[in-house]
Write a structure and sequence with these properties.
The chain is an alpha+beta fold. The chain is 32% helix and 40% strand. It contains 5 helices and 9 strands, in the order αββααβββαβαβββ. Helix 3 packs antiparallel against helix 5. The longest helix has 23 residues.
Length: 206
């Protein structure tokens, strides 16, 4: 009887452990010309491997969106107009849930900055190992004779050459982090349609 009780207790603890939501979760999906290329997800210690598997595509997408956002913000601050449109909104409900959404839409074209070079980073591990820094985003530096990297064009080319894109592609990734009673979710959607690049980020905390 005692042994049976211990077995029941062990089984109950095991079920509770299995039902506990993962602390870290990562989902990634790519649709090309309205067809699924892949849809994968990983939890906890499996997350780095999945991110590494798609690092080239993630790196290209993050840099392209950072490039678009930086140029758009710079033009707006100077009082000019741009082919990029940036919107942001914050919504908070009574349940303590907070949502922030930002988006950009840009024409994919060759961009040259007079007397300057715009250098962008993805913040991925491979990026940091190359000596480019860990932070995601872009910074201006004085022109040193090097050619401006056309990040949106590189993403478009990668989708065409590696994934067979003819008309459009949508890359979606979501990172979920849970700690005690706190949960945050960052969902990024990058869409290329013809010569238009659209980037959206949704940050939800609760």
């Amino acid at each position: 009887m005692k042994r049976s009780s211990l077995v029941c207790l062990f089984t109950a603890c095991l079920l509770m452990a299995c039902s506990k939501p993962p602390q870290e979760e990562f989902k990634i999906e790519l649709r090309v010309d309205s067809k699924d290329q892949f849809k994968e997800q990983a939890i906890n210690d499996k997350v780095p491997a999945l991110e590494a598997k798609h690092r080239e595509l993630l790196d290209a997408a993050i840099k392209a969106c950072a490039f678009s956002s930086f140029l758009s913000e710079s033009v707006r601050q100077q009082g000019g107009s741009s082919q990029s449109v940036v919107t942001s909104s914050t919504v908070q409900d009574m349940g303590g849930k907070s949502e922030v959404t930002t988006s950009t839409s840009t024409t994919i074209r060759n961009v040259e900055l007079p007397g300057a070079i715009l250098e962008c980073h993805s913040g991925l591990v491979s990026d940091a190992q190359s000596g480019q820094g860990k932070d995601e985003g872009c910074r201006l530096k004085d022109a040193d004779g090097s050619t401006q990297v056309q990040y949106p064009l590189l993403l478009q080319s990668l989708l065409q050459s590696r994934h067979g894109m003819k008309q459009n592609a949508i890359l979606t990734q979501e990172s979920i982090s849970r700690e005690k009673k706190f949960e945050s979710s960052l969902k990024s959607t990058v869409a290329v349609s013809g010569d238009t690049l659209s980037c959206t980020k949704e940050l939800v905390t609760k």
